[in-house]
From TrEMBL, chain A:
InterPro entries: Rbsml_bS1m-like. The lineage of its organism: Eukaryota, Fungi, Dikarya, Ascomycota, Pezizomycotina. Residues 222-232 have a biased composition (Polar residues). Residues 22-49, 217-241, 458-496 are annotated as: Disordered. This is Mitochondrial ribosomal protein MRP51. Signal peptide: none annotated.
UniProtKB/TrEMBL annotation, chain B:
CDD domains: RPS2. This is 37S ribosomal protein- mitochondrial. PROSITE patterns: RIBOSOMAL_S2_1. The lineage of its organism: Eukaryota, Fungi, Dikarya, Ascomycota, Pezizomycotina. PANTHER family: 30S RIBOSOMAL PROTEIN S2 PROKARYOTIC AND ORGANELLAR, SMALL RIBOSOMAL SUBUNIT PROTEIN US2M. GO terms for cellular component: ribosome. Keywords: Ribonucleoprotein, Ribosomal protein. Residues 356-368 have a biased composition (Basic and acidic residues). Residues 349-418 are annotated as: Disordered. It comes from the Eukaryota. Belongs to the universal ribosomal protein uS2 family. It holds the Pfam family Ribosomal_S2.
Amino acid sequence: MASTQRAVSPGAALLRSSRLFSMPAPIAPPPGDMSQATKHKSETATAAFPTHLTVTTPSTSRMVGDWGFKRPLPLKTTTKSTFPLVRVKKVDSIEHVTDFQSASDHTITLEKFREMNLSFSVPAPKDRQGNPTLISVFEESRDFTTPAPSNLLATPKGSASARAIKNDGDPLSLRWKFRGPWLAGMTDGEFDRYIAKSVRARRSEFRQFLRERLAAEKTADRNSSISEQDASTPAHAIPPVKADSITEEELLEYTRGLRGDRHELFNLVSRFLDLAPVSNADSHLAPNMLGHMIPDKAYDLYRDSPYASEGPPITHPSAGLSYLRTQAFMENHPIYGPQKSHASVKARIVTPRFGVTNQNPKIGVGGFIANIPSHETQFSSKRRHAVSAVGSNDGIPGLNDFDPSQEGGAKVYVQVQTANVDATGKVQIRLSDRDLETDIVQKELVGECDTFGGAVKEAAQPKPRSQPSGERRYTSNRTFGSAPNYGLGNLGGRDF
Amino acid sequence: MIIREFGVRQGRKALAAPLRRGQQCMRALSTETSGTPVATADPAVEAALQTSPENPTVPSLFARTAKPTRRRPVAPDTTKADWETAQQLRHNLRNVGAQVEHRYSPSDVFRNPPGPKDVTLELLMASQAHMGHHASVWNPANARYIYGIRQGIHIISLEQTAAHLRRAARVVEEVAYHGGLILFVGTRPGQTQIVTQAARLAKACHLFTKWTPGTITNSDKILPGLPVEIVNEHDQPVGGFNQHLMDRRALVPDLVVCLNPLENFTMLRECSQANVPTIGIVDTNTEPTWVTYAIPANDDSLRCLAVIGSVLGRAGEAGQKRRMEDAKNGKVTWDTPSEIKQFMDIQQKRAQWTKRAAEEEAATKDKSGGLNGKPSSGSATKDSEVFDESMQKLQMEVDAATADDVSPQLRKMSRRTD
């Protein structure tokens, strides 16, 4: 039997298994925002996601600049950092230099992210407030890209599967990868180009697709009528209507009918082109205000797809950052025992809430900018200064105002709820409300406060004798500026 | 040293104590009391001293309250014992724990240089020999060495590198076996250690600084009067060639190994003009016809150059070893250079002529003496005897030099280590 692999020389086999050859090609950089053309944009800002492989080297090799590439990398720039991490953009360029830069930004961020034990979940629909059910992106019902071939064919309108779709939602729309584009995110020019290049050439193919669908519908109609007339004849005994037997007139009539039914036509077209689902739920058009009474509510387009409103993600929805399915595990504390919530994470208040614009504060968690919860939490308190109110610590210092006295910037302990990747490849981390008890436990664990030690010390000390009830603590005729009132005792023996 | 300032310099305390004792004695002897307070460095000492029977006064407040200068008790020095204990412990625990396997260290290639036998495709790939230049800066003459393009660079075929490296190692070994003068050249920064190591192994010369243009083609001006010595086949210096060495031209290497041909184009050109074979590491952007024996490899990676340099150095070492063994068995692997041969011929003939002339002179002297019946003057006889003696010595030297089993050779070119 002839082997499918071509025989290669030993050197070629070696090279193919080498590390240089196994370096993946860089992926496309994050898509630029058109509005950023007029905004201030930092040149040195960390990109939303890494595009190149991170390369490291043993310390002995780093000392001589050997990173496994064409030439030794300069020692001056590569030996200063704690961790040896570079990304090589070009192994060799026409200027005879190796184009590289430090990759600590993304690599250390990944390490910090892994420390948080976060799992990625499917983004919850926007209209559902509060605590949505978190569904992992690795669930079998969500983590698939290729539909079964039988599913790709359009389901007949009156069939049982079509009814199931109407009730439970289309399982195909739960995918995260589609062959076609997301029409809602295309510009006008992109759309025209797509129509001209990819769609127009498939006209005859679409006709055949319609023919097959019409044949399937006809078969279903005939089967139902036969079973109504004569229950003894099994439906499958009669051969199904073939697509070839559909005449041009029948097809024309069917097409005319489809032109009147826009939703059905859109469903068919999107099924044929495998378009990514779109949603009209977020548009602020007048019909949306009507709630249940929206006309054609039954034909709502792919409401079940989590990516309909923002577009499908450009990577796997976990982005390879975490492979955890759930955070449903319990942390144990050596003294306090099992903990209700996960350990708090120390976060950086990157930008406080500005007084004028009332822009939401930006909170950096493990290298990512996290979204503060949208509902009423301690983060939504707009108190200008952190004043400890009675019975609550709702003021987060530095959240609403820049506090120059805080060395290294203001920090806050936060509870991280979940993360997901949006359509532009950015990681969106959702925070939940603060839990002060958890914060204290975590602070004690890292040595920022000593609750347990303080309590033990307090319990070990003998209680101070209570004051005799007859002794006056404070005299009613207090004189300001007197020695007893300063706590110096009754020096002169005089009673004021 | 100025003695009178000794006390001031060495501190008051050194002189104060004997002075105080002397004062006590003096007080016992003399009747008058001295009211002069004496300054002391150590208040505790002073307090102790003041408890004399003559002066049983209570110590001053300062002396009572002052702490002794040395607060901590002196701990015995256990450094040596501790060190010995640690060594003993390490010895006892030597076999406990995991065996740490030695994988790779960048200095391995210098500690244990690989030879031609150790050249494997794995070694070459690990030392980045396969990485050529950016695909757009290639020299199409290198197409036969190139395997393909990856990551935007040309990949040099490892088999080609290995084959050409083995061939070059063979060349170096044979040149060393035949007593040739090898020169290792690597003029880029970081190549010093590689070049010197290869030269040390192969008993060759090295160059890690700029090649002065004209060192071969204009050596009369560039390298005049640099020391050269003549050796026999056992590499031992041979005398009697001073006159030749005075007026001989500078040496030309018999093989040049160049690690960076791009920067040493001038040298390679001079070598080709002087018919000197060259070995060069040819990257994908280098012209391979500049050198006689090309080794297609990455000329930018110091790791690759170190491997190639040590392989060639080891090859030269093997050649030298074989040559020395053959010399011990009486086999000389090289011919005496023609100019030395010529010089020796001339010297021999001159010696013969001198000898003959001396004999003839002696014969004529004897004859005339017999005719005249007059003994020759003692001084003349003595002079001729001295002359004969010196001539015989010279003859012996020349004979020794021209004997069949002795083949003088020029050994050292002036090493350019500036």
